[in-house]
């Protein structure tokens, strides 16, 4: 058997070129394959961060560089050590997300018959309790927010109350995710006057159609009139929601807009930390549950893949009803009759 020179391609256990099975190469191929499902750019970036971060820990465990790690080195013992290091400075939810990303990575390559099995089932992951919905606090907070915006509460350098009101009302009355709102185009709106609807592209490219009732239709039309006055003709493929220069809103711009609306409307202290746009979605769903919507109706309106995600809103609603019922003053008499300790 001849001596293999250092600059010749080495062969791995499957007989393929070693360069072909570099993990960094397989990550790029995996992400390209995932793009067929039309994930948002934010989702793809999150996949990449999780894959590359854990790969960095694998490289440290192996005493090499990330670009030199090959698939056959991703053994259970190495992945366990890498995830232990990855988890040391991160929240449990971040570790679970990274675990799921790597699990999807291996499942893909098992299906492609590139690797023999998925080692992630032997890699521990933390148990994370499902987080409770975090709607805007305060019974009348949504109404106070919208009234304040309609009155021009947001003091910006170039105020545009019609746009601000349309964005917040659209989120509160449809429950769309940030990415879904940002992906809307002018031709996403359809239907006859009084029967308007909006076509939403959700996670995984799934579509759903949401009703637009007359009051929201009026707000959207006022926004579109003001937009045409500012920027002229609007085409069907143009972004529905735009910034003050007429360009499609981006994630950071939407978050900033919503944050400023909260602050100028005086309700910023009623927003759970880290929610911003998502607080509007949670408010929409919680109010649906409080008003008697079924879990199936909530699931379809929110674009959830399973009933379990929507069930949380029903449970919160039941808790709120119990709390309201227990505040009945008649219970005070019963407590007096029951005596101390009851």
Automatic annotation (TrEMBL):
Residues 131-326 form the Tyr recombinase domain. It holds the Pfam family Phage_integrase. Gene3D superfamilies: 1.10.150.130, Intergrase catalytic core (1.10.443.10). CDD domains: DNA_BRE_C. Keywords: DNA integration, DNA recombination, DNA-binding. Residues 21-110 form the Core-binding (CB) domain. PANTHER family: PHAGE INTEGRASE-RELATED (PTHR30349), TYROSINE RECOMBINASE XERC (PTHR30349:SF81). This is Tyrosine-type recombinase/integrase. It comes from Nocardiopsis coralli. The lineage of its organism: Bacteria, Bacillati, Actinomycetota, Actinomycetes, Streptosporangiales.
């Amino acid at each position: 058997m001849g001596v293999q020179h250092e600059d010749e391609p080495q062969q791995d256990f499957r007989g393929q070129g070693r360069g072909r099975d570099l993990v960094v190469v397989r990550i790029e191929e995996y992400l390209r394959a995932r793009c067929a499902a039309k994930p948002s750019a934010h989702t793809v970036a999150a996949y990449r961060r999780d894959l590359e971060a854990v790969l960095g820990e694998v490289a440290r465990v192996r005493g090499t560089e990330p670009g030199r790690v090959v698939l056959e080195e991703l053994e259970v013992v190495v992945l366990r050590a890498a995830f232990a290091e990855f988890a040391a400075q991160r929240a449990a939810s971040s570790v679970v997300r990274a675990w799921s990303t790597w699990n999807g990575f291996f499942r893909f390559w098992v299906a492609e018959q590139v690797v023999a099995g998925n080692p992630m089932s032997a890699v521990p992951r933390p148990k994370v309790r499902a987080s409770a919905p975090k709607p805007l606090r305060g019974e009348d907070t949504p109404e106070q927010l919208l009234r304040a915006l309609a009155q021009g509460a947001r003091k910006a350098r170039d105020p545009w109350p019609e746009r601000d009101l349309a964005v917040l009302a659209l989120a509160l009355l449809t429950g769309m995710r940030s990415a879904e709102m940002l992906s809307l185009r002018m031709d996403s709106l359809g239907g006859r006057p009084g029967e308007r609807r909006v076509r939403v592209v959700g996670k995984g490219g799934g579509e759903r159609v949401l009703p637009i009732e007359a009051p929201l239709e009026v707000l959207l039309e006022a926004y579109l009139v003001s937009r045409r006055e500012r920027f002229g003709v609007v085409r069907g493929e143009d972004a529905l929601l735009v910034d003050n220069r007429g360009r499609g809103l981006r994630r950071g711009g939407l978050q900033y807009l919503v944050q400023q609306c909260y602050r100028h409307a005086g309700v910023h202290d009623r927003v759970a930390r880290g929610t911003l746009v998502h607080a509007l979605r949670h408010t929409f769903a919680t109010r649906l549950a409080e008003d008697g919507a079924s879990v199936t109706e909530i699931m379809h309106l929110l674009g959830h893949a399973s009933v379990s995600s929507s069930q949380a809103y029903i449970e919160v609603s039941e808790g709120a009803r119990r709390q309201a019922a227990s505040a009945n003053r008649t219970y005070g008499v019963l407590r007096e009759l029951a005596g101390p300790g009851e």
